[in-house]
Amino acid sequence: MDINLGALSDTDGLETAADLRRANPGVKIVILTGYDLPVYRHEAKKNGISGFLNKNISPDDLIASLIRVFNGASCFPEERGDLIIEDLTGMERKILQIMSSGKKRKCAADELFISERTLSNHLQHIFEKLEVSSVVEAVTKAIQLGYIPPIC
């Protein structure tokens, strides 16, 4: 399964895979994606996904990896010392997505049906988790880590 399901789904492949695992705990799922980011690998492991492979993998390595997963092993790329930061909540991700579009805090709070004070509290938690001090830095780091899609 890919992370980017495009028009096939309103959710991403990681969320769809997690739903499949909850409905069928014994199913083995391998993510095959071009989005090889630490946050995605971490999310896949956390949700019991069996493997996470980059689309640039050779056909022979792909087959070998799928056989390993079929035989009960997991198959994830070697950790490269990637920093896995504390997970952002769904609300924190949504806030970052909204803020990445350039909206002012009041507009973002209104869109989320929360007060500006609550939004500020969420932003402070985001800044602490991402180890940044501004919305621009938070959005930039969230994009780099794969928490939100790049701005097009």
UniProtKB/TrEMBL annotation:
The keyword Transmembrane helix does not apply. The keyword Transcription regulation applies. It holds the Pfam family GerE. The modification 4-aspartylphosphate is found at D2. Keywords: DNA-binding, Phosphoprotein, Transcription, Transcription regulation. Residues 1-70 form the Response regulatory domain. One of its GO terms (molecular function) is DNA binding. Residues 85-146 form the HTH luxR-type domain. It comes from the Bacteria. InterPro entries: CheY-like_superfamily (IPR011006), NreC/VraR/RcsB-like_REC (IPR058245), Sig_transdc_resp-reg_C-effctor (IPR016032), Sig_transdc_resp-reg_receiver (IPR001789), Tscrpt_reg_LuxR_C (IPR000792), WalR-like (IPR039420), WH-like_DNA-bd_sf (IPR036388). Gene3D superfamilies: 3.40.50.2300, Winged helix-like DNA-binding domain superfamily/Winged helix DNA-binding domain (1.10.10.10). GO terms for biological process: phosphorelay signal transduction system; regulation of DNA-templated transcription. May play the central regulatory role in sporulation. It may be an element of the effector pathway responsible for the activation of sporulation genes in response to nutritional stress. Spo0A may act in concert with spo0H (a sigma factor) to control the expression of some genes that are critical to the sporulation process. This is Stage 0 sporulation protein A homolog.
